[in-house]
Amino acid sequence: MTEHGKAPGSSEAEQMAWRRGKLEGLRSQGWDFPNDFKRSCDGDGTEHTAALLQARYGDWEKAALEAEGLRVTLAGRLMNRRGPFLVLQEGSGTIQFYLAKGAEDGLRDTVAQWDIGDIVAGSGTLEKSGKGDLYLNLTEARLLTKALRPLPDQYYGIADTELRYRRRYLDLIMNEASRETFRVRSQVVSAVRRFLEERRFMEVETPMMHVIPGGAAAKPFVTHHNALDMPLFLRIAPELYLKRLTVGGFERVFEINRNFRNEGLSTKHNPEFTMLEFYWAYADYRDLMDLTETLLRGLCEQVLGSTTVTYQGTVLDFAKPFARLTVPEALLAYTDITEAAVQDPAALAARLRGQGVKVASSWGLGRLQFELFEAEVEDKITDPVFLTQHPTEVSPLARRNADNPELTDRFELFIMGREIANGFSELNDPEDQAERFKAQVALLDEGDEEAMHYDADYITALEYGMPPTAGEGIGIDRLVMLLTDAPSIRDVLLFPHLRPKAADGPDPT
Q1: Of 34, 123, 442, 456, whose CB is crowded by the most CB atoms within 10 A?
Q2: Domain residue ranges of the chain, discontinuous segments joined by +
Q3: Which parts of the chain have pLDDT scores under 70?
Q4: Do strands 308-311 and 314-317 pair parallel, antiparallel, or not at all (unpaired)?
Q5: What torsion do the CA atoms of 192, 198, 199, 204 make, to the nearest 10 degrees?
Q6: How far is Cα 275 from Cα 296, in angstroms, rounded to an integer?
């Protein structure tokens, strides 16, 4: 056996054959992937883990720990051999086993059968090395799982980024940074849930398969229900169902769940993604912006321990108030356009065409301004900016502004060139909503695959009366990207969508 527990020979096939031979030998001795192992526990049932032991005994003096004579039983994946020390990795961290020179032959023979990557267990007294590292002085040892494939070399890790995505399990074994990213993701979701529950929001679940796609402008995935012989759509947003609940009397509701949009793959987009959507009766879009600032600032403090976040080399200070700009104000702040041109449809159209944007003759001033924002401004934003007062023609579910019906009481939050949140005072006028649905259907008939359908039942719900309400969606994946300094959405999805390739592993035939 080599220093790192690999078979002689460099190819994976040779190493796998060697390991399979060892497995056959173990099976012949009656070993067969045991399932009866338990870690040791405190008297109250608290399970012993590497992190728990480090927290309790990491500061103890070497002599004091030896005098304590604490016997524990642990298990994990064997990651390395350092002479008599064996490095184990388990869910909470790493710890070492120590095989003393005078260990009995049976114990030494058991440990000799272990390969790097195996799941192993051991019992012994907890001690501390001269360097101050905790270890288990082995008196018992067991093999729990034989790994047939060798791990990548720890020094070089997994250089192929696509392999990290395709074999996320391998990435998690080898890469502590990846494990930390998904720990942060879990903490973010938990913190968001607590934040809303503390403010009397109720968590709900709404359908994933819709008869009518709605709630956002996006192309849906289509499936078919055989028993009912009807098409169904994977939801693009839960919005219309959540607002039905507001009609029903639930004044503060939220859902954290998946949306599905039949769009391309990029560093910002995945066809299925996680969204937080929440609705708040008797609130408006300004209340949402205030709440969102408080939420994101608190997330940074709770999850990262600081309101300062560094993303791809740019330092962001979430303690500062977030900027709030209308679409025209953002154009003036981030481009060289003049105030006169911002209000000139012909000038805006010409500038958009110069950017390669196909301009429709039906676009009004607001739509032209918004399209220019997307073309020239969005990617330039670094610090948090609330973009407000979107044109009505691109906001079919938002309430019209009382002073200017061509605009809506809506905002989007942009950070580091990405939309993080979208919220607005909800349109609760059933007649206005019906007219806007009809306008969307006209676009759909003209070939716009992202236009909305007419949802007659939703109009019926509004006709029973929805209180003044504000609602918002926050992209959890993009938020986690920001908090973990991840350049691609694939880095924060455990199993991102990828183009198919030849199946890994041996042919089962």
Answers
A1: 123
A2: 12-151, 174-322+383-492
A3: 1-10, 155-157, 502-509
A4: antiparallel
A5: 60
A6: 15
